[in-house]
Amino acid sequence: MHQFGRLCGAALLAGALGFGAAPAEAQAPGVTKDEITIGALGALTGATSFMGGPGRDGLQLGIEQINAAGGINGRKIKLVYEHAFTPAESVAAAKKLVESDKVFALILSSGSTGAAAAANYVRETGVPTYNLFGATPIIRTPFAKNVFHGAMPDAPTSAQALVDRVYQAKPDAKKIGLLVGTYSFPQSNKAAILPILEARGVKPVIEEFDQDSRDFTSQLISMARQRVDAVIVLGSFSEAGFAYKQAPEKGLANAVWVLDGSAVNDAIVPIIGERDPKNVWGYSNMPAFPAQDHPEAVKFRQAWIAKYGTPPQGRPNSYDMVGYGGAFILAKAIEAAGENLTWDGLIGAWSTMKGAKPSDLGGADVIFPETFSETDHQGNRALGRATIKGGLWQTVGQ
Amino acid sequence: MAEFVMVILGGLKFGAVYALAAIGIVVIHKATRTVNFAHGGLVMLGAFATYVLVVDWKWPYWTAYLVVPLLIGALAAGLELSILRPLRRADLFTVVLGTIFLGTALSEAFRLAYNTELLAVPAAISGAPIFIDIGEDAAIVTLEQIWVTGGALAVGLAGLFLFRYSTLGRSMRAMASNIRGAQLCGYSVERVYATAWFTGGALAGLAGVFAAPSRGVSPELAVSIIASAFVAAVIGGFDSLAGALIGGLLLGVVETLSAAYVSSAAKSAISFVLLFLVLLWRPEGLFPEAKRRHV
Amino acid sequence: MSDARRPLAILSPLLAPLALFLWGWAAGDYWRFVLTLVATSTVIGAALTMLVGFARCISLATGAMMGIGAYCSTLLILHAGLPFPVAVVASALAGGVGGLLLAIPAVRFKSHNLAMVTLVFQAVVIILVREMKSVTGGAEGLNVAPPVIFGQTISSDLVYLGMAACFCALALLPISVLLSGPYGRNLRALATNEVAARAFGIRIERYLMAAFTVSSAAIAMAGALAAPRFRIIDPDSFGLHTSIVMLAYPVIGGMTSIWGGILGGGLMRLLPELLRPIADYIELILAAIVILTVMFFRGGLTEIGERLCPRRTAPLAAAPDAPAERATTLPAPRPPSHAHAGDALVATNIVKRYGALAAVDDVTLAIRAGTLHGIMGPNGAGKTTFFNAVTGFIAPDAGRVVLFGQEAKPGRVEDRIALGITRTFQHVAIFPGLTCRDNVIAGLGRNGVRQSFRRSLDRALWSAAARDEHEAASWALAAVGLRSLAETRADQLSLGNQRRLEIARAIVSRPRLILLDEPVSGVSHGEVEQIVTLLRRLNVELGATMLIVEHNIGFLTALCDRISVMASGRIIADGLPAEVVARKEVRQVYFGEIEDAA
């Protein structure tokens, strides 16, 4: 019993010390004389690890270049990256970064429902937060003055781009098929697309599939029967790839295929087995694709290979690029906030930043310039028109 | 009508792969009384080995049909010897737990070793599709579809005959019905266990070779294959190779039919409902091998 | 452990939420958040100890049950405006109903088939959640508001942890009471030996349904408690992957006590947080831990703990193989109440056929109350079949059985003990994981699910009823000479002592009729004599009628008042032992060509 009492006493003391150790200096959390700690979370394993892993690598690459060029106002950036996929993991990771690691700003490098749960948390805490990949409305609404969105536009903007791609490729398209995954982000994109099609008076043919589906026989046959002119695929590149590959054998030839952002990935090419498929379109939220022959993309790719070595199939992907570019945008905002860093200072500087781009701090311009305002925190709205040429996705104008 | 034929053919192609995987599960269970939930992991590794041979090393596709089953068979026998051996005398329950997590470990190891979302494997056979006129419409069949469906079924049938008529098959069956009796008759436990796992693993490897082009290689392949193969095996009676074969085909066809004519979102639910109905109606499966023993 | 400390041991699981709360008190907000989820995981672990560890049902529907709880409470708060605590309790009820719905078809199956049925349930629940978008928000998820209790919104991590710890304690308590009482012991009994369990009135399907219901209610409650911490609930959080991870809780912790689930659940929830620097490897590490546990430490953490610090109360003095002490004559606490004149058992024209073979062919037999009656015969004579027909383990094709003047309808095996009939088994059928005392207590009957729930509560409170059971077991163990081994695990006894234990279990309910199926097969010569003495004495003291099937003629002639001889399904001789054994036809069937030997 005595021992227990002593233990309790020790625990209490430790707790009191913990509370007492609140920062005495005026600096914001995570900022010292020569270092700024930034936190990021995303899935390193599981279904959306194709975003989280590249997001981490891209961020790290960008931060190293910024530090190598002298950092921000004399301070270096340190990145703490935590794995998180489900809402429970994401809230835990966000709490750890904000409350234990005391990061100065938080980056959401995940598009999952988990990121939405973390966004819900950061709204309460007020930590400046940069959402790189999340399109779903629950990350973005209600508006929060501390949450900023980067290269990935909101769902209505990208949905509009998808519909535009259909009519750019086939202006007289009448029947449009929607091939939609039953899981989280395809469903939110579907909710954004339906009103746009309705406004145009188009009643789409909707077929759904489970995550990681490989057999699209029934969905494609149904679309072939209803003679759709175009198919919009809301799902990952693997799902889109197998659906496209199976289409001719199910009687669906000559349709226009428009793929959602998550399917616009060079790894789709070996799946469909053609280097120049006709009528496959998508949008890009960057000026060029990672493997495209474009000066900024080449610069980025060389830097990536110099750091991480020979890339595996499909890497670096667009999430590497957005992560890389995002590091510069955040650094730019911190730089604009001045020497004496506070959360309010950063949010204020960020909210008035216009046309920020990586080259401002010496990086490669692999993302579109980002502009923010007090009431609009969506940095990028530009979306390029993309198609597959010579086995690679290429941006071909707006 | 042509559409209906195409739906059925599409279902048969996936069903044939389920059947092949299910037969592997049944062979292992029949000979060693081990319920192998790690089978999906073996199929996935089979598909992965195909990728390495065909895409990385650029070997001709047919070599995969020879090399991969040997490789995965040896791996399966090795896993049994190293990991499952201490569990031979354990109750069924412990073994099920062990193999469930062995399956998880296999797909996680692959994910870590080859961190990418999906590896694509080209089709074994390509060529212009065949049009079959049915009424006013034409059903479209690709060569790959015929090759995968026919090939997987042929392998499955070969396995069936091997188990029934070879000495090996006889020793495995003897071991299953009475392990001590079989030992007295001169069958070696070690050899039977090794052969059964090798055969089961080889079938899993072949299922992986057949599945690779149409499903790609990803850790998720393990989970989706194991669920379907188990449903097929249970529908078939779990101890009947022919039952597993028919169960696999039935499952593939029912899945595509329900996706086509009921709801594409309810596809996986319907396969589970099928399993549930079969279990309720005939707890021993459609093709019970032995009557239930009474106490 | 001493009897007075029993209730304290049952309360000990409450230390877990208390410890988590104290830890959270000393730690920061991030840890308080994590520890809240750890607390809910200990409840899930404890619930799975009941279902997976004790009842040996592999369930892959844990995630679905948790989801039922999370969605149920969130929707009740959102649409019906229920206060948070009420919604949590309501979601536990919903989980219980879900568990029962799953159990009704599921308990008919075992091992992998059972796992498949639970997988069906898991898949269907997730698909329903995903497709009912207007209610559940579909795949994108549903926002969960912070809980409100008495008008106060709980936003502090510490207060939330405290509240969760209270709820978890409330959930752990009944699980602890059930698992350490007769309900839990009977679950383990039926998981290890179904036939014997049935013979002592344990109705397996009902026990398993209860296990599914109780554990699902606790899991759903944990889900409801965790939901506001998730902030957004979505079907992915409650998918098959979650179920598989949670299945590891009791495996890693240990499946023989509630502490196994608590420790396993707590550790498995903490590990991903502790191992954040190597997050890429976490899934592989968890799988490897389970595989290693299953390979080398099948008892899990609790067993490792016990090995490191063995309990002082374990009866170290009594080496399990040592011969038991001489059976002592103890005065029976109650005098035999059913001294019955006339016949104990009258079987008339019993027929049982297997295909063309008539295993029992028109057998008629009357046994006088209070006598020791033996049945002998060569292998395949139909003794055991006849025996099983009388005990109700198989239904005869024809004939009737009258027990103490009442016709015994061929009914459920489980009901026989209530008629005052108990039995032992040809192959020893003790419950290996239980102590000798607990084996004997199972023999008391009163094993209906509801009765066992009430008895578990009695035991937790150490009420008069529980003390009586304890005493009755002591008496029966003393009667067969196993008093000193009362707290030893039954599987550590010698075969002869296991036979004695079976006899103790058969007599503890003071039955009117005891059926002994080959009670000395495989027992050493010296012990046979002891068992003869024991049975004769029990016959006198209890006044119980005994029917004994045996090969060992010396044993039967020494023991029995009368002997019947069976051959080819018929009774060929019946009478006093010496007289029967001397008969020529008996010697012929039994010893073969006896004439030559003379």
Write the layout of secondary structure elements.
The complex is a heterotrimer of chains A (398), B (295) and C (598).
Chain A (H helix, E strand, L loop, with lengths): L1 H19 L14 E8 L6 H20 L7 E8 L3 H14 L4 E4 L4 H13 L3 E3 L5 H4 L6 E3 L5 H15 L6 E6 L2 H16 L5 E5 L7 H9 L4 E5 L2 H10 L9 E4 L8 H5 L7 E5 L10 H14 L9 H19 L6 H8 L33 E6 L2 E4 L3
Parallel strand pairs in A: 1-2, 1-3, 3-4, 4-5, 6-7, 6-8, 8-9, 9-10
Antiparallel strand pairs in A: 10-11, 11-12
Helix pairs in contact in A: 2-12, 3-4, 6-7, 12-13
Chain B lengths: L1 H31 L6 H18 L4 H24 L7 H22 L16 E5 L2 E5 L1 H23 L1 H11 L1 H6 L4 H27 L3 H17 L5 H21 L5 H15 L14
Antiparallel strand pairs in B: 1-2
Chain C lengths: L5 H6 L3 H12 L2 H26 L7 H19 L3 H23 L4 H21 L1 H4 L5 E2 L4 E2 L2 E2 L3 H24 L1 H11 L1 H6 L4 H27 L1 E2 L6 H14 L4 H17 L7 H15 L3 H9 L34 E12 L2 E12 L3 E5 L6 H9 L6 E6 L2 E3 L12 E3 L12 H7 L6 H13 L2 H17 L14 H13 L5 E5 L7 H18 L2 E5 L3 H7 L2 E6 L2 E6 L1 H6 L1 H8 L2 H4 L1
Parallel strand pairs in C: 7-12, 7-13, 10-11, 11-12
Antiparallel strand pairs in C: 1-4, 2-3, 5-6, 5-8, 8-9, 13-14
Helix pairs in contact in C: 2-3, 2-8, 3-8, 3-11, 3-12, 3-13, 4-5, 4-6, 4-11, 5-11, 8-11, 8-18, 9-11, 9-17, 9-18, 12-13, 12-14, 17-19, 17-20, 18-19, 19-20
